[in-house]
Write a structure and sequence with these properties.
The complex is a heterodimer. By secondary structure, chain A is of the alpha/beta class. Chain A folds into three domains: 230 residues, 3-Layer(aba) Sandwich (Rossmann fold), CATH 3.40.50.300; 156 residues, P-loop containing nucleotide triphosphate hydrolases (Rossmann fold), CATH 3.40.50.300; 72 residues, no CATH class. In chain A, 33% of the residues lie in helices and 24% in strands. In chain A, the strands form five sheets. A six-stranded mixed beta sheet of chain A has the order 6-7-8-3-9-10, with helices on both faces. Chain A has a six-stranded mixed beta sheet with strand order 16-19-20-13-21-22, with helices on both faces. Chain A has a four-stranded antiparallel beta sheet with strand order 2-1-4-5, with helices on one face. The radius of gyration of chain A is 24 Å and the shape is globular. Chain B is mainly alpha-helical. In chain B, strand 1 and strand 2 form a beta hairpin. In chain B, helix 8 packs across helix 9, helix 8 packs antiparallel against helix 11 and helix 12 packs across helix 13. Classes of the chains: A alpha/beta, B mainly alpha. At the A-B interface, helix 1, helix 10, helix 11 and strand 18 of A face helix 9 and helix 10 of B.
Chain lengths: 530, 392
């Protein structure tokens, strides 16, 4: 390895938790000025590996080398001092501090804070890497994408030579992802070595110089940037994966959900859904597309009844449920997959079996009078566990012990195990690995084919394309237009920025503008206009 | 997000092992509390402390005096708590109200509510039960049943008000219950001076003794029907929490109110139900004091201090019992034993009764700080476990 002195190298890293081997002799290296993608499903051991690198975990075997010199990190501080920076998936920022103050954290120096220098540092770094950030802005006021920039700036302020991005795009909108990719490119140009952890294949193809795939704690292969998504997925999951959803054309029936002039305020009192109306027929999937934060979440919450609308009507199968709470909405046949499943979707400390009856526990056959029928609850769970392939040791395990994909399977299994007239699913595959996405998509299409009306809220254009029969694009609380899912991506992208369909088509033109470089891999793989 | 590795791993075996570890930590907490208690005894006893002044001259003196002090004290404590049938009965009698009030606090904990108001609820339980006991004259059995029901109504009502305020107005239950404790104890003080409660011929605040027909029948000394009632209440709470739809909602709301609401449960309704039942249970603790025979074989008449500090002891009982009914029964028995053994300790070893309260506090302190116990005794540390399948 003498010819490869410059760079960061992990050699034979092994990490065990009890009997579980999270990392099994993993080798990984990153050279200055390259982006090395670490690809793998949830639970493949990517984060464990990076936590070893960052000094959070001590490895049970193997070594870390920087420029050929062995390193030992007992804590993140030592890793930082050695030039390793981490951009966490969940930002490690103090919300009520300004950007500059966050940058000072942990490096306050003397007793007196030198705010001017921190501000200057923010200005200098953000200019150098093309990441505009206002140093005096409070972090809590910033959009998620900008908060992430602060996180990156923090790492850069520590003179990081190697940056680890742990699933950085999971919380970002498509536009923000494009910005991030541009930032990563400029970091690469400055000679930083970047490890990019993700399970999103499109991003990997857009930016990676080298690709390493992990599965079940081991490196299972390396791939070139040109490798097709299908091949990458197969490496990652260990079997061939069908990325497209096999679905018949929709056979829409009667209108089941009728929404008229709906106005909804968020908890702060701002009107975030402003006069939205649409119909959804049985047997079709209406996708609500849009950049995060344009009222989709509140629309979904208003449908289930977590928020009472200010005005307008919601009718399900002819019954007015505008002001119904969740209990009545559920009784009316609404299935609901919440956007934030950790918060709204399940009770983490409850067993899988209990979570599978969370909205039906007081009805037969799960209850007789006041008494729970534990047998019926367990039988139901066992049946659903097999049907939905929920990977666990048993149905009495807590939900907290499951991986993200399996948690979401529990939520979907619960909702789809009833007779539904309407399924409202928000971001049903966020943070879910490829293998599970395929399965979840199939189940949603199956539910459609049973004649259920489906409303799917998604910010992921892949998902919209794969599932939608019609697409309603939301922007600032209004529906900009309802279009065919085969509408080109650039047109959808413009609509998501508030441009009406006709103008968007005209602006996008016959050829996609080459100016949007960061977006180019996305655009070229988009489908053609009909 | 492998930093969730601390989440208990799956599987029945592992869960039992985790439970065993919890028990071990609890046992270790008691041991540590006894050790610290011993140190306190040694430094606070002037005679023993004196001998330490010439420790280096004659260490034997100091050590034997210390040993004598500690061993006689703990021996007296043990004998006073479980050393004889009478002692056991005394322990059971002391434990009965602690168990009831502990259940009231523990049940609320499970719904995510911090019920500091067991004291007030117990006071109202005692007021209602005692009034029925001395003001009404009913046939045997009927009288005690009516008195118990009245006590339940008193406590339940006091709990329901908290639940109602919290559900309808979002009032913080901690603040409300603390204030309601003041209202309850001051109400008692006022009531005791009204003609309805003041014992004829007395001017100090004490109510008439209750009729014998309203008394909890004694089975052996202070071991009375009330204790059986407390155990039955524990069984009932277990069923309610683990086997009923109401308990399912209580646990769901306690663990994740957002998910519970999204699944169609009414958080407000669950809060009201929980606080009402918690009030019933704490009210039952008050009933125990009003109707249960004391050391002299008859119930203590209603007075200002009748329920003591049961509502606050109940918090420690619930904490030690980890809000689980069986745990609360054991914790109640332990503290009941410390109470009744403490009296013997004072009599036979000359160690002040306060030491038993210190021990009680120390045990809970160590239980509430399991990391401290694990630091002192590293072998109790759990092996790190990974989430099954982990998370990337």
């Amino acid at each position: 390895m003498s010819e490869q002195q410059s760079g960061l190298e992990l050699r034979g890293i092994t990490k065990r938790f009890g009997t579980f081997v999270a990392n099994d002799h993993v080798d990984l290296d990153v050279r200055p000025g390259e982006i090395h993608c670490l690809l793998g499903e949830n639970g493949a051991g990517k984060s464990t590996l990076m936590n070893v690198l960052y000094g959070i975990y001590q490895p049970d075997g193997g070594e870390i080398l920087i420029d050929g010199h062995p390193q030992h990190f007992a804590n993140p501080k030592q890793a930082m001092a050695a030039g390793i920076g981490m951009v966490h998936q969940h930002f490690m920022l103090v919300d009520v501090f300004t950007v500059a103050e966050n940058l000072m954290l942990g490096r306050e120096g003397g007793f007196v804070l030198d705010r001017a220098r921190a501000t200057a540092k923010v200005r200098e770094l953000s200019e150098r890497y093309g990441m505009p950030v206002e140093p005096d802005a409070l972090v809590e006021d910033l959009p998620v994408g900008v908060q992430q920039r602060v996180e990156i700036l923090k790492a850069l302020a520590n003179d990081a030579r190697f940056l680890v991005f742990d699933e950085p795009t999971a919380v970002l909108t498509p536009q923000e992802i494009d910005d991030l990719i541009a930032v990563m490119r400029s970091l690469r140009a400055e000679g930083k070595g970047i490890v990019f952890i993700t399970h999103k294949l499109r991003e990997v193809r857009a930016i990676a110089d080298r690709i390493t795939v992990m599965r079940r704690g081991r490196i299972v292969g390396h791939a070139e940037p040109g490798t097709s998504e299908a091949e990458l997925a197969e490496l990652m999951v260990g079997r061939a994966v069908d990325l497209r959803v096999d679905k018949e054309p929709a056979r829409p029936g009667e209108v089941r959900l009728r929404v008229r002039d709906l106005r909804v305020a968020n908890s702060a009192g701002g009107v975030v859904v402003d006069g939205v109306g649409f119909d959804v027929r049985g047997g079709e999937i209406l996708c609500i597309a849009g950049v995060q934060g344009n009222g989709q979440s509140e629309l979904a919450d208003a449908l289930i009844g977590n928020i009472t609308p200010l005005s307008g009507t919601v009718e399900l199968d002819g019954v007015d449920i505008t002001r119904a709470g969740p209990a009545r909405s559920i009784a009316a046949g609404m299935g609901f997959v919440p956007e934030d499943r950790e918060d709204d979707g399940f009770v983490a400390s409850f067993s899988i079996a209990e979570n599978l009856v969370l909205n039906r526990f007081d009805q037969p056959p799960f209850a007789r009078g006041l008494a729970l029928d534990l047998g019926a609850i367990a039988d139901n769970a066992e049946r659903l566990r097999q049907e939905f392939d929920i990977r666990s040791q048993g149905v009495s395990d807590t939900l907290a012990s499951l991986s993200g994909g399996n948690k979401q399977k529990v939520v979907l299994a619960r909702e789809l195990s009833r007779e539904l007239s309407l399924l409202v699913a928000s971001q049903p595959t966020r943070g879910v690995d490829v293998g599970a996405i395929e399965f979840l998509h199939k189940r949603i299409v199956d539910e459609r084919d049973k004649g259920t009306a489906v409303v799917l809220v998604s910010t992921e254009l892949d998902e919209v394309e794969a599932l939608a029969d019609r697409v309603a694009v939301m922007y600032r609380g209004r529906v900009v237009g309802t279009v065919d899912p085969r509408t080109p991506r650039d047109v959808l992208g413009l609509m998501m920025a508030g441009v009406p369909y006709e103008e968007a088509v005209a602006a996008a033109g016959p050829s996609a503008p080459p100016g949007s470089t960061a977006d180019s891999p996305t655009t070229t793989s988009g489908r053609r206009t009909p | 997000m492998t930093d969730r590795a601390a989440v208990p791993a799956t599987g029945r075996g592992l869960r039992w092992r985790a439970r065993g570890r919890t028990l071990a930590v609890t046992a270790a907490s008691m041991l540590l509390a006894l050790l610290v208690g011993a140190l306190l005894m040694i430094v606070s006893d002037p005679e023993v402390a004196d001998k330490f002044r010439y420790f280096f001259g004659r260490p034997g003196d100091a050590l034997s005096a210390s040993w004598a002090k500690v061993s006689t004290t703990y021996w007296a404590l043990l004998v006073g708590a479980v050393g004889s049938p009478t002692a056991l009965a005394g322990t059971a009698g002391q434990a009965a109200p602690l168990i009831c009030a502990g259940l009231g606090v523990g049940l609320a904990f499970r719904a995510g509510l911090f019920n500091i108001g067991a004291q007030g609820q117990a006071i109202w339980g005692a007021i209602f039960a005692a009034w029925v006991g001395f003001a009404l004259h009913l046939p045997p059995v009927v009288h005690v049943v009516v008195a118990v029901l009245a006590g339940l109504v008193g406590g339940g009502l006091w709990g329901w008000i908290v639940g109602f305020l919290k559900a309808k107005t979002g009032a913080n239950e901690v603040i409300v219950t603390i204030m309601m404790n003041y209202i309850a104890s001051q109400s008692l003080a006022w009531l005791l001076l009204t003609p309805a409660f003041l014992r004829p011929g007395r001017i100090d605040p004490i109510a008439p003794p209750i009729d014998a027909t309203a008394m909890f029948a004694s089975l052996y000394g202070q071991f009375h029907v009330g204790f059986l009632l407390a155990v039955a209440a524990a069984a009932g709470v277990w069923w309610l929490l683990d086997r009923s739809t109401v308990g399912f909602a209580i646990r769901a709301v306690g663990a994740n109110p957002h998910a519970a609401a999204t699944a169609g449960m009414s958080v407000g309704r669950t809060t009201m139900i929980t606080m009402t039942v918690a009030g019933l249970l704490a009210g039952l603790a008050g009933v125990q004091y009003a109707l249960g025979p004391g050391a002299d074989g008859v119930p203590t008449p209603l007075s200002l201090g009748l329920v003591g500090t049961v509502g606050f002891d109940a918090i420690t009982v619930a904490l030690l019992g980890r809000s689980r009914p069986l745990g609360i029964v054991f914790a109640g028995l332990l503290f009941g034993g410390l109470h009744s053994g403490g009296l013997a300790m004072q009599t036979f070893a000359g160690t002040p009764l306060t030491l038993s309260q210190v021990l009680q506090a120390l045990i809970v302190l160590f239980v509430a700080a399991p990391d401290l116990v694990r630091t002192v005794l590293p072998f109790l540390r759990a092996p790190k476990q990974a989430v099954v399948g982990g998370a990337a």
